[in-house]
Amino acid sequence: MFNLAIDSKLRGCDLVSLRVRDVTHGNQVLSRAMVVQRKTQRPVQFELTEPTRTAVAAWIAKAALRSEDFLFPSHLHDSPHVSTRQYARIVEHWVVAAGLDPSAYGTHSMRRTKATLIYKRTKNLRAVQLLLGHSKFESTVRYLGIEVDDALEISEQIEI
């Protein structure tokens, strides 16, 4: 779950509602997947790194999941998959186990991590915008916490 959260850059609600078929083809975990985001109804594509593919394949085998199953099924009878609240609790446990302050990190940190790294390495706001599925450039700028003037200057330097 941790690796997939980082790689996919999905919101918690989209991560917990993934089905096995969203990230696999037959018995093979895909290197690239696409899902439609619940909030925006826009498709977003993401890469699954080798460690993530290995972890997901191991999880699917261990949990004996089928293609139509939710990737993170709930143990509760009334819920088909792990809730966003339960996901938040899981992330909090990870944060505490890593010796970090749980008030400073949460589920949205998982979404923001890779997007921030991509931006820092490439300065390509358009790429980050596409990866996050943002419809507005300004949303990506706010999301990354960069100044608008800096963002505009960088975007003028990048040829499309």
Blueprint (SSEs and pairs):
Elements: H1 2-8, H2 12-16, H3 20-23, E1 24-25, E2 28-29, E3 32-36, E4 43-47, H4 50-63, H5 84-97, H6 107-122, H7 125-132, H8 137-144, H9 148-157
Antiparallel strand pairs: 1-2, 3-4
Helix pairs in contact: 1-6, 6-7, 7-8
The CATH homologous superfamily name of one domain equals Intergrase catalytic core
- Spans with pLDDT under 50 lasting ≥5 residues? none
Shape: globular
**Content-based structural category:** mainly alpha
Report the radius of gyration as a whole number of Å: 17 Å
Percent range of helical residues: 40-55%
Q: Give me the count of strands.
A: 4
What is the CATH architecture descriptor of one domain? Orthogonal Bundle
SSE topology string: HHHEEEEHHHHHH
Largest sheet: number of strands, sense, barrel closure: 2 strands, antiparallel
The CATH topology of one domain is given as: hpI Integrase, Chain A
